[in-house]
């Protein structure tokens, strides 16, 4: 063996206490860490003499390459670098970590990014669980980020790795992994609404980074999302009242930010029947200790869809900036998204006669010639300041300008008989906007009082929505769902109220008049009291919610109705870990709030009566088991929801209470029980009953749109005999359900099968992943659920998705 002289290439200097670690590498693949005096580390002019080492043989230095199939669980789930910082790293059963695989030698203190304290949210994203498809925790509203074993609710947080590997291009495709969620709009419609635990959640009720009113309306581009967090059940204390009173659950979208590792990712994709697209994802950190972060996501996709003769264009530009110092953290998110549907739309159907008509082909287009467009522009800023070791002040503000044009609503086939004939409802051509101003602020901290630890939070939030909706329409027409005719086209609404529409005028030469205004403001306090090393946790809190609404006549702008009321909403929850941290038992009582109303119909017997916000109540118990490689959640719940309905008797109108009760059991599972084999899904059993109706006709009947059984199961397997190849499969099952409150029309059960394949490799030092997915593999057409009382939805036709991703 010969002696070789080699000059040091110094990679990093990190200070630990009064010493410094100088990390250097040689020409050969050898890394040496030297301890030097702190003064030496601070003196940049001093140099080190050559060092003599033993080198077994001389080699040219090669660029370190990532394994074709990484050993770590979460790395196997995605070929992209994680975009969120990982201040806490959870280990997997095989000794791997939830961070991305390290390329090249580890550098001590390479990032230098100041970690966020437990009381902070910015830069404190919960790590991924084994398998990388689900995160270990989620944002629990005002309580901040919490591990799922310390969360007394059923929460699931889907990661960007899962979104990319399944090629989920809409929020619907992400939530098709959840047994508690079903769609309330037909697949491929320009709007996406959902049902969680049987109750509707509108697409305009999504939260963005914990704030209502800022998420894109219509379809949400998934390419700029790091997490999709789903809380099952009401959340008045945690999140405040949803913009339109959703009580079945809440969905929070977490945007991508620059991670500790740089990322440059380029993807090209294909979606049947002829859509092609490109997605660019670039993230970097900079500054003397990486305190500045920037992340950009850009998407363009255009072409024919799986719906007959329909064409779609999607575009997204999203920019995320952040600044993280030792005691202060700031972030800014801005995006512009646009989606254009040309020549048609998916539809909803109501029925007439003695039964439900057979579902037509899922690719059926009843509205050839109609066009629609959504455009969303938003910016939000958040900040956190650590005023003490365990006390953080936080604040946020955001603005949204959302505009919609064309045939975004009213795409219905009404009164379909067994032969498929129907008299189409009037077709409407809409023009509207939503302007939102969302704010929040508060203080979150920890303190110990003897054997008890308190995690307290005081939070205030406000949301102001200004909306407009105007439309032009035509009279009903006749058609058939199996042999549709080209429907007549409705004209756009007039640009100037009370004037006829003139061709050549832009849609928004002037803004349409405001038709509605909503103001939601609340103040809340909560405290988590824990004892015995947090083996027992008691959460209690109270929120004061104010609701103010106004409606205006579109043509004149005259105020037609005003409502102003408030309500107190408490919540309590308990967590007990009887043996160790692997088993967590929990229970909760929490409420959901929906807007009340003031009776403005002068013919009503209770004219001018004002009803306070309606209070939905949930009682839930459950258990969570964390085996490190596999997690299970079992939940038992009951939700009661009161509303009002009109009753006409003897020519007199009155508003009477209506009450619905949903009871259910949920089982959720996720993880990697065997190395290379990942599972995700669960089963839901639910009974929904109308316990009180306005006229007594539906009392005791099944609530519409609620099947008894829902099951979703997704699996991945890294083939041991084909390195880099992963096969995927998913089955979705929904049992029979009633589509109307009178229980006349019952939709049959259905099951859908999806399949996928991906191949990860490295070509000339560049990581490349090829993906192929087929949703609705057997192209089965069926009624999938309920849009609203009496209207059924269709699921997606067979859809092929292909993509190639390069990580530079």
Keywords:
3% helix, 22-stranded antiparallel beta barrel, disordered N terminus, 808 residues, 53% strand, mainly beta
Polypeptide structure, described:
With 808 residues, the chain is mostly beta strands. It has five helices and 45 strands. It has a 22-stranded antiparallel beta barrel. Strand 35 and strand 36 form a beta hairpin. The longest helix is centred in the first third of the chain and has 6 residues. The chain is globular and about 70 Å long. The N terminus is likely disordered.
Structural class determined from secondary elements = mainly beta
Q: Report strand %.
A: over 45%
Q: On the 0-100 scale, what is the average pLDDT? A: 85
Q: Detail the poorly predicted runs.
A: 1-110, 498-506
> Largest sheet, described in full?
22 strands, antiparallel, barrel
Please tell me what the overall shape is.
Answer: globular
Q: Would you report the number of β strands? A: 45
Number of helices: 5
Terminal-residue CA separation: 38 Å
Cα-atom radius of gyration: 28 Å
Question: Helicity, in percent?
Answer: under 10%
In short:
By secondary structure, the chain is mainly beta.
What's the arrangement of secondary structure elements?
Layout: E1 3-6, E2 9-16, E3 19-25, E4 31-37, H1 38-42, E5 51-54, H2 73-77, E6 137-139, E7 145-147, E8 155-159, H3 160-165, H4 171-175, E9 181-183, E10 194-196, E11 199-201, E12 207-208, E13 211-212, E14 225-232, H5 236-239, E15 249-255, E16 263-271, E17 275-286, E18 292-304, E19 311-324, E20 328-342, E21 348-351, E22 372-388, E23 391-406, E24 412-416, E25 421-424, E26 428-449, E27 452-473, E28 477-480, E29 516-531, E30 536-552, E31 559-576, E32 583-594, E33 614-626, E34 630-649, E35 652-674, E36 677-692, E37 709-718, E38 725-734, E39 737-738, E40 746-747, E41 750-763, E42 766-775, E43 783-786, E44 792-794, E45 799-807
Parallel strand pairs: 12-15, 21-24
Antiparallel strand pairs: 1-5, 2-3, 3-4, 6-7, 8-14, 9-10, 10-11, 12-13, 14-15, 16-17, 16-45, 17-18, 18-19, 19-20, 20-22, 22-23, 23-26, 25-28, 26-27, 27-29, 29-30, 30-31, 31-32, 32-33, 33-34, 34-35, 35-36, 36-37, 37-38, 38-41, 39-40, 41-42, 42-45, 43-44
């Amino acid at each position: 063996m010969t002696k070789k002289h080699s000059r040091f290439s110094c990679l990093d200097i990190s200070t630990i206490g009064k010493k410094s670690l100088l990390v250097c590498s040689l020409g050969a693949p050898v890394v040496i860490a030297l301890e030097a005096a702190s003064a030496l580390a601070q003196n940049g002019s001093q140099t080190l003499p050559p060092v003599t080492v033993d080198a077994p043989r001389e080699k040219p230095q090669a660029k370190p390459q990532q394994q074709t199939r990484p050993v770590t669980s979460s790395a196997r789930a995605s070929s992209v670098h994680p975009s969120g910082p990982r201040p806490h790293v959870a280990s997997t059963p095989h000794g791997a970590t939830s961070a991305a695989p390290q390329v090249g030698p580890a550098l001590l203190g390479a990032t230098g990014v100041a970690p966020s304290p437990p009381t902070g949210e910015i830069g404190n994203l919960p790590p991924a669980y084994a398998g990388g498809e689900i995160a270990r925790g989620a944002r629990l509203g005002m309580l901040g980020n919490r591990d799922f074993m310390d969360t007394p609710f059923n929460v699931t947080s889907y990661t960007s790795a899962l979104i990319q590997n399944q090629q989920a291009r809409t929020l619907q495709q992400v939530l098709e992994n959840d047994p508690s969620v079903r769609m309330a709009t037909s697949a491929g419609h320009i709007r996406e609404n959902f049902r969680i635990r049987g109750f509707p959640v509108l697409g305009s009720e999504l939260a963005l980074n914990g704030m209502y009113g800022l998420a894109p309306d219509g379809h949400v581009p998934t390419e700029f999302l790091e997490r999709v967090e789903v809380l099952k059940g009401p959340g008045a204390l945690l999140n405040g009242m949803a913009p339109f009173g959703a009580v079945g659950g809440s969905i929070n979208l977490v945007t991508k930010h620059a991670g500790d590792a740089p990322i440059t990712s380029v993807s090209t994709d294909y979606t049947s029947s002829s859509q092609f697209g490109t997605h660019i994802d670039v993230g970097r950190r900079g500054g003397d200790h990486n305190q500045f972060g920037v992340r950009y996501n850009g998407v363009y996709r255009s072409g024919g869809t799986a719906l007959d003769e329909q064409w779609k264009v999607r575009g997204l530009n999203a920019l995320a900036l952040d600044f993280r110092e030792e005691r202060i953290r700031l972030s800014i998110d801005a995006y512009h998204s646009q989606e254009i549907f040309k020549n048609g739309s998916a539809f909803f159907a109501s029925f007439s006669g003695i039964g439900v008509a057979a579902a037509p082909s899922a690719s059926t287009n009843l509205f050839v010639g109609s066009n629609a467009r959504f455009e969303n522009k938003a910016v939000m800023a958040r900040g956190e300041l650590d005023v003490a070791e365990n006390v953080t002040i936080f604040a946020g503000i955001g603005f949204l300008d959302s505009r919609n044009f064309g045939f975004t609503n009213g795409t219905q086939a009404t009164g379909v008989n067994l032969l498929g004939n129907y008299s189409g409802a009037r077709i409407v051509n809409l023009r509207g906007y939503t302007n939102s101003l969302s704010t929040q602020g508060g203080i979150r901290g920890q303190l110990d009082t003897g054997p008890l630890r308190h995690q307290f939070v005081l939070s205030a939030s406000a949301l102001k929505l200004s909306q407009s909706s105007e439309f032009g329409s035509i009279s009903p027409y006749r058609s058939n769902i199996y042999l549709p005719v080209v429907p007549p086209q409705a004209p756009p609404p007039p640009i100037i109220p009370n004037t006829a529409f003139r061709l050549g005028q832009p849609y928004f030469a002037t803004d349409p008049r405001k038709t509605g205004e909503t103001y939601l403001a609340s103040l809340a306090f909560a405290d988590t009291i824990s004892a015995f090393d947090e083996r027992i946790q008691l959460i209690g809190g109270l929120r004061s919610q104010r609701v103010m609404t106004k409606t205006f006549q579109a043509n004149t702008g005259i105020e037609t109705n005003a409502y102003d009321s408030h309500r107190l909403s408490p919540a309590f929850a308990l967590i007990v870990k009887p043996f160790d941290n692997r088993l967590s038992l929990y229970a909760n009582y929490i409420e959901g709030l929906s807007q009340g109303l003031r009776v403005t119909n002068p013919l009503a017997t209770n004219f001018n009566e004002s009803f306070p916000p309606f209070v939905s109540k949930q009682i839930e118990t459950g258990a969570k088991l964390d085996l490190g490689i596999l997690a299970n959640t079992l939940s038992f719940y009951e939700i009661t929801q009161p509303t009002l309905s009109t009753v006409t008797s003897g020519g007199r109108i009155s508003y009477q209470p209506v009450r619905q009760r949903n009871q259910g059991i949920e089982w959720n599972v996720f993880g990697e029980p065997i190395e290379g084999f990942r599972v995700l899904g669960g089963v839901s059993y639910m009974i929904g009953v109308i316990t009180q109706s306005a006229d007594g006709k539906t009392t005791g009947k099944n609530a519409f749109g609620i099947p008894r059984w829902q099951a979703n199961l997704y699996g991945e397997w890294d083939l041991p005999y084909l390195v880099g190849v992963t096969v995927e499969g998913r089955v979705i099952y929904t049992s029979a359900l009633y589509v109307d409150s009178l229980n006349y029309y019952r939709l049959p059960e259905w099951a859908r099968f999806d399949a996928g394949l991906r191949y990860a490799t490295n070509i000339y030092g560049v990581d490349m992943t090829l993906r192929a997915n087929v949703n609705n593999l057997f192209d089965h057409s069926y009624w999938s659920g309920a849009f609203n009382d009496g209207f059924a939805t269709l699921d997606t036709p067979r859809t092929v998705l292909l993509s190639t991703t390069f990580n530079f």
